[in-house]
Specification:
The chain has about 230 residues and is an all-alpha fold. It has 13 helices and no strands.
Length: about 230
C-alpha cells in the first residue's frame, strides 16, 4: 500500500496515534522525578538523565540503587540487563523501515521505547511505516518524558507516596494496553503465558531486572516452538 499523505500529515497522524500512551506516561515520569529528587538529583540532572538514557525501566532501576559515590559498573550492568529487550525490538522494527535512509534508521533507534515500538509495528501491519510517522510517535513521547521527569523532581515532596496517587499502577496500565494491541497476532496467548510465568518465577526467586529478559526469552522461545514449521513426512 502506498502512502500519499504529506510528511506533516504523517507526523500529525503518528502524534495522534501515540497521544494516549504519551499522556499515560506523565504519572510514570513524575514518579521518576520524585524518586530522583529524594536521591539528591536536581531538576536539570533529572531532565538530562531522561534525555540521554530515555529508558524508563532502566532509570527506575538505576535510581533505586543510586548511592554517593555512584557504583558506575553496577549501574552499567543493570542498565544493560534491563535494556537487552531493545535489541529484539530494534531487530523487529528495522524490518519495517524500508522507507528510512540508513542514517534515519540509526537515529530512530535512539528514540525507540516500548510504546513507540508497539505503535510502529501496529502501523506497519496496516501500511508502510514512514520516517515522519515514526517521528510523530517518538518525539512528543520523548519530550513529554523529559519534561514530566523534571516536573516530578520539582514536585517530589508532594508525590513522596506514589500509591496515594495511584502512580504505582501507571507502568502496569501502559503495558496492559500495549499487550492488548497484539492480541490478534498468531501465538499471542502462548507467548504471553510463557513470558508471564517465566518473569514471575524469576522475580520470585531473585527479584530484580533479570525477570525482564527472562520473560522475554521465554516468550520468544514459546512463540518459536508453537510456530515451528512442520517437516515433510
Amino acid at each position: 500500500m502506498t502512502v500519499s499523505s504529506s510528511p506533516a500529515a504523517e507526523f500529525r497522524a503518528g502524534a495522534a496515534a501515540s497521544s494516549a500512551p504519551t499522556l499515560a506516561l506523565v504519572p510514570f515520569a513524575l514518579l521518576l522525578g520524585g524518586l530522583a529528587a529524594a536521591k539528591g538529583f536536581t531538576p536539570l540532572e533529572t531532565a538530562l538523565m531522561s534525555a540521554l538514557v530515555f529508558a524508563g525501566s532502566a532509570q527506575f532501576a538505576a535510581i533505586d540503587t543510586w548511592t554517593d559515590p555512584a557504583p558506575w559498573l553496577a549501574l552499567a550492568g543493570l542498565t544493560l540487563v534491563v535494556n537487552l529487550r531493545h535489541v529484539l525490538m530494534s531487530a523487529s522494527v528495522l524490518r519495517r523501515m524500508e522507507r528510512f535512509p540508513r542514517a534515519g534508521r540509526a537515529l530512530a533507534m535512539l528514540f525507540l521505547a516500548d510504546e513507540v515500538w508497539a505503535f510502529a509495528e501496529a502501523r506497519a501491519a496496516r501500511q508502510p511505516l514512514t520516517p515522519a510517522y515514526f517521528a510523530g510517535l517518538a518525539l512528543p513521547f520523548y519530550a513529554c518524558w523529559v519534561a514530566a521527569g523534571a516536573a516530578g523532581n520539582l514536585l517530589g515532596q508532594w508525590i513522596a507516596d506514589p500509591r496515594a496517587w495511584g502512580f504505582d499502577f501507571a507502568f502496569v496500565a501502559i503495558f496492559i494496553v500495549l499487550i492488548r494491541g497484539f492480541r490478534a497476532q498468531p501465538g499471542f496467548a502462548t507467548a504471553l503465558i510463557a513470558s508471564a510465568a517465566a518473569a514471575t518465577a524469576i522475580d520470585w526467586v531473585h527479584p530484580g531486572p533479570a525477570s525482564i529478559i527472562g520473560g522475554t526469552i521465554a516468550g520468544i522461545a514459546a512463540a518459536a516452538i508453537a510456530h515451528k514449521p512442520e517437516t515433510a513426512q
